[in-house]
């Protein structure tokens, strides 16, 4: 039996009546598919976990159109329901969905944020007469109204996110907030198209049954995407754990790994490398010194010269690093970059003495990024070199120590994007001994500049 109340009690713009079973079904579908798209248990599964006394797995969630959220059902509610009823559809999924601590506060905020955005979008749709056009499936009029509703949703959601970030103390500029808002529009438009399809099917001959069938490919796609996101998050967590382990052992180089990864990405993007390889290269640059875990801490922190035997012991750290990560299949060619990042173009590097194009591309990129960050970073015993001086040193050694193509790519990228070295921590380095340049011993200064190695004055070994 149809339960209905005057819609004017909910929102005077809508007119007509509210179909509460439709509201309830849309709310259930939205809550279930939103959780599914984030790789988290659905509300029914969460209830089952609690009934069995088991801990409910949580997955991070934030409001707003983004990868990991699933809004076609919510947008269908915006198109088919009065504004206040559309807002109600957003509430259960947000209150029961996964989020991060403090969970109660975040769930209340997410529910209010999505409800207000859905309310505004539904009101815009009805003001533009979209409801009448949709009832007769008249296009493109209904599609234009749906487009306006999606844009209204993004605008309200973006403003609310900006207000919350401001209240939380985030001081991002207007330009960055505008880029975040613009970035939310493309996925919201895709979800809006899905919502329009659901609304049209729902109002057809087969009603809700056809709409739910239409949701199947969308929900499967969202679930597959969520699994990919979870896998990527696991990969990033693995890399972070390894880097943190290195920094615990060799704290003096804290931040160096991340900066080498960042500089490697600058070079790769300047070369036009495919984005998938750029992500893999970032892993390689960040993990390039993971082999230090297998080197005696006393050698890494020696405040003085190393003997030849000690130097050889440290120079095998790329081999140790390769052994540590060789079972991590997701690293792919990053493993070769880690193994060979101390090779030189003239064949005088280590561990295998490769030369020229025989050195893997990732290793040639990381070699330049590593030396650049080492030269521009401040140490307890010397200030970092200016970027211009570091660039000049790289250019002098291009062809002998470094790949000239990679050096040129870094120079252009730094010129376009700038470079901000990590400053020394407040109060200095708290007595830690300096890291020691452990590359190929530098030839005598009287040799021509093209024949000598970069002296990083404390670079990564």
From TrEMBL:
InterPro entries: Cyclic_di-GMP/3'3'-cGAMP_PDE, HD/PDEase_dom, HD_GYP_dom. Residues 231-426 form the HD-GYP domain. Keywords: Membrane, Transmembrane, Transmembrane helix. Pfam families: HD_5. Residues 419-461 are annotated as: Disordered. The keyword Transmembrane applies. PANTHER family: CYCLIC DI-GMP PHOSPHODIESTERASE TM_0186-RELATED, LIPOPROTEIN. This is HD-GYP domain-containing protein. The keyword Transmembrane helix applies. The chain crosses the membrane at residues 70-96, 108-129, 141-160, 181-202, 208-226. It comes from Kitasatospora terrestris.
């Amino acid at each position: 039996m149809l339960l209905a109340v005057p819609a004017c009690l909910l929102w005077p713009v809508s007119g007509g009546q509210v179909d509460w079973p439709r509201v309830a079904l849309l709310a259930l579908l939205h809550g279930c598919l939103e959780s599914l798209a984030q790789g988290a248990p659905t509300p029914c599964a969460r209830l089952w976990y609690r009934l069995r006394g088991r801990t409910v797995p949580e997955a991070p969630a934030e409001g707003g159109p983004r990868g990991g959220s699933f809004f076609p059902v919510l947008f269908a509610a915006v198109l088919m329901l009065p504004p206040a009823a559309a807002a109600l559809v957003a509430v259960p999924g947000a209150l029961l969905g996964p989020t991060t601590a403090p969970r109660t506060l975040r769930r209340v905020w997410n529910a209010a944020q999505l409800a207000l955005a859905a309310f505004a979008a539904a009101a815009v749709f009805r003001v533009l007469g979209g409801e009448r056009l949709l009832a007769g499936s008249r296009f493109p009029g209904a599609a234009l109204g749906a487009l306006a509703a999606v844009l209204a949703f993004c605008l309200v959601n973006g403003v609310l996110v900006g207000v919350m970030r401001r209240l939380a103390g985030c001081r991002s500029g207007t330009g960055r907030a505008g880029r975040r808002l613009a970035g939310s529009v493309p996925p919201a438009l895709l979800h809006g198209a899905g919502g329009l399809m659901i609304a049209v099917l729902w109002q057809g001959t087969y009603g809700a049954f056809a709409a739910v069938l239409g949701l199947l490919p969308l929900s499967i796609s969202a679930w597959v995407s969520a699994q990919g996101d979870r896998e990527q998050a696991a990969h990033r967590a693995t890399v972070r754990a390894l880097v943190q382990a290195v920094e615990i052992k060799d704290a003096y180089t804290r931040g160096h790994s991340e900066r080498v990864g960042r500089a490697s990405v600058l070079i790769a993007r300047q070369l036009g490398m495919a984005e998938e390889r750029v992500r893999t290269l970032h892993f390689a640059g960040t993990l390039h010194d993971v082999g230090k875990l297998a080197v005696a801490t006393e050698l890494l922190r020696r405040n003085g010269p190393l003997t030849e035997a000690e130097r050889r012991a440290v120079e095998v750290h790329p081999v140790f690093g390769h052994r540590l990560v060789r079972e991590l299949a997701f690293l792919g060619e990053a493993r070769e970059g880690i193994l060979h990042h101390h090779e030189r173009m003239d064949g005088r590097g280590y561990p295998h003495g490769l030369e020229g194009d025989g050195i893997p591309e990732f290793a040639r990129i990381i070699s330049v990024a590593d030396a650049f960050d080492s030269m521009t970073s401040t140490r307890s015993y010397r200030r970092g070199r200016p970027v211009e001086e570091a660039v000049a040193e790289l250019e002098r050694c291009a062809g002998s120590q470094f790949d000239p193509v990679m050096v040129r790519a870094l120079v252009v990228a730094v010129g376009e994007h700038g470079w901000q070295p990590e400053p020394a921590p407040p109060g200095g380095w708290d007595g830690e001994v300096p890291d020691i340049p452990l590359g190929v011993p530098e030839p005598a200064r009287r040799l021509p500049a093209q024949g000598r190695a970069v002296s990083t004055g404390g670079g990564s070994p």
